[in-house]
Amino acid sequence: MLIQCTKKLLDQLKIKPEPVGTESSLFSWHANLITINRRKTIVLMNDSSRYTVVLHGLRANDFKHLNEHIINAIRRTLLDEWIKPELVERFLSGSPEIVYTKTKDRKLVARMNKACDTVWFRGEALNPDHLIQSAAGRRASALLVGDGSGSYAKPNELMYKELEAFAKEPIFSCRAVTFKATLDLENHKAWRRVIVPIEITFEQLHDVLQTVFDWKESHLHDFYILDGKRPVANVVCSDDAFDYPNEVPMFMETECKLSDYVPKYSRIKYTYDFGDNWEHEIEIEKLDEHYSKNYPVCLDGVGNAPPEDVGGPYGYDEFLSAISDPKHPEHEDMIQWGSMQGYRDFNIEGVNRQLKWVL
After folding, report:
1. Whole-model pTM?
2. What residue range is the signal peptide (predicted)?
3. Model confidence over 109-124: pLDDT tens digits?
């Protein structure tokens, strides 16, 4: 594994760079040391695909074990893409020795700097408690990048193609569950059937639900895991929730995976916006042991979700009454307000385009 370092990173490592050798671009990375939120951060960019891997919050002792951290960061980031574990290990063993050298290609340095800018720009999303920032790397790799000639591609898709060519077989495999999420509306129907990798966190499940129901992530939310009608766990989105304990054990959504409870429990209640109080009943329908994608798919759905801040079920009824009746005194105002809120008809094709990048 060839790691081509900026001078700043080489100075930090206090090592003499090896002579610039040759290595397949799939096993070559450019690396830079930057500071984000006053913490030392290493951004690695794969030379072949521009795929990004991030280490954040490195301390002096971490630099002494950087070989191990780099390998673990690449491993963790690829595994979190639901790439087959055995293929990840084959990739890592394809060039097991790490060699540090100087950067040698201005074009690749410029591309690496753009990757650094992307990670820095979203620095508030970095988790200060973890060295390996898998989510940050995967988010950076999902953005379109140009090649200077008018063509654009996404680094993650390029990396998938490179790994498929390397492995000579499909690279994705994971366990997945199909669920039906029904929004509780007295006078209207709104539900979605979705298949998701079972190892997603509840934070990621929230992102999926926001996407399929076209919510805007403007409010707090939580989950209750149900055994029949009895709640066995309350999964919350904010530390503030622990200031208001109840009889049900509480957990942070970033620390819980869907697989911690499913398929043992088959019902989940998801509440979004504690003011309008949009309650969704999630029913687990099917377990798939060999899901061949690394993203969720909306399989079916009916009905629109209400616009944000409409005022609960009663407010939604009033909103629909106004926009459907040209003679209603608030007809034009409600149509304009609904448009500003992003209210639109359910479009499964559009939802699935978004779901490819939601995790």
Report:
1. 0.86
2. none
3. 999 999 999 999 999 8
